[in-house]
Amino acid sequence: MTRKIGVIGMGHVGSTAAHYIVANGFADDLVLIDINEDKVKADAIDFEDAMSNLPVHTNITVNDYSALQDADVIISALGNIKLQDNPNDDRFAELPFTSKAVKSVAQKIKDSGFNGIIVAITNPVDVITSIYQQITGLPKKHVIGTGTLLDSSRMKRAVADELNLDPRSVTGFNLGEHGNSQFTAWLTVRVLSHPITEIAKERGLDLDALDKAAREGGFNVFHGKKYTNYGVATAAVRLANTVMSDAHTELAVSNYREELGTYLSYPAVVGRDGIIEQVQLQLTDDEKKKLQISADYIKTKFKESMEN
């Protein structure tokens, strides 16, 4: 079976995701789309120049929405990262730009006849994922945001640094908005074969500080180079591969939670049919409150974006 991925938006994140796909042979066909015609054509030539030094070949198509019709996955990476350079470290600063752009792109995706899975990276990702689903009319389970898949990874890195471990030795999830109202669900986090709450007591770990490190990790990167790309691009490509391989992997991604009436990040089993199963966690009352705050904020911003 031919594997086909589309990447829409070839800025820092989109081009990094595309390079990860090409260098590792994750797709047989790759469709690259960007409003900057010269940039996306240059990227395509650059990838083709690399292919004689790679063990795999990828067929590349540029700026053709009709080529998305039979794609397995579309990764939405469009945005205007300069808008993130604000004193409040607010991902919603991009919303006026991205909501308008995504409405246009989503309609073109719909018109192409695309019937696969959309993976949204575009910020603010929970609202943008909601817009994609609304405009395309695809089943909610077929439109997914990377959400806190990246923030959970940042949490694992922070915990692993404290314990001198490989981040892959830490399991657990950050929940809610991919933004300032997210939080680490510490009852889900295990390390050294024990709940982290036990390890924290034994070794004096400051869980509040680790939660802050996960929440603010993206802005620490952003302030250093004025964009983030490797972490989120890797998360998006992992999610795309999980779909294409029908892996049935449990991941913290932005998915539609009926009980909250919105997209936000919560663990779900992901496979070729998108969200295969939604996980139900035993959250504390405080965590339930935090999750509701995230949900209410996302719903408010989604409503505003659809009215404008």
What layout of secondary structure does this protein have?
Elements: E1 4-8, H1 12-24, E2 29-33, H2 37-50, E3 59-62, E4 73-76, H3 95-112, E5 117-120, H4 125-136, E6 143-145, H5 149-163, E7 170-175, E8 183-191, E9 194-195, H6 196-203, H7 207-225, H8 230-244, E10 249-257, E11 262-271, E12 274-278, H9 285-307
Parallel strand pairs: 1-2, 1-4, 2-3, 4-5, 5-6
Antiparallel strand pairs: 7-8, 8-9, 10-11, 11-12
Helix pairs in contact: 1-8, 3-4, 4-9, 5-7
Features:
globular, three-stranded antiparallel sheet, 308 residues
Task: Describe what you observe in this structure.
The protein is an alpha/beta fold. Helices cover 44% and strands 21% of the residues. It is built from nine helices and twelve strands. The strands form three sheets. The chain has a six-stranded parallel beta sheet, with helices on both faces. Strands 7-8-9 form a three-stranded antiparallel beta sheet, sandwiched between helices. The protein is globular and about 55 Å long.
Short note summarizing the structure:
The protein has helices at about 10-25, 35-50, 95-110, 125-135, 150-165, 195-205, 205-225, 230-245, 285-305; strands at about 5-10, 30-35, 60, 75, 115-120, 145, 170-175, 185-190, 195, 250-255, 260-270, 275-280. It has about 300 residues and is an alpha/beta fold.
Residue share in β-strands:
15-25%
- Treating each run of at least 4 consecutive H or I residues as one helix, how many helices? 9
Q: Globular, elongated, flat, extended or rod-shaped: what is the shape? A: globular
Please outline the major beta sheet.
6 strands, parallel
Low-confidence stretches: none
What's the average pLDDT?
95
User: In angstroms, what separates the terminal alpha carbons?
Assistant: 42 Å
Estimate percent helicity. 40-55%
In sequence order, what are the helices and strands, one letter per element? EHEHEEHEHEHEEEHHHEEEH
Q: From the structure provided, what is the oligomeric state, counting identical versus distinct chains? A: single chain
Total number of β-strand segments? 12
Secondary structure category: alpha/beta
Widest sheet: strand ordering: 3-2-1-4-5-6
**Radius of gyration in whole Å, from Cα?**
19 Å
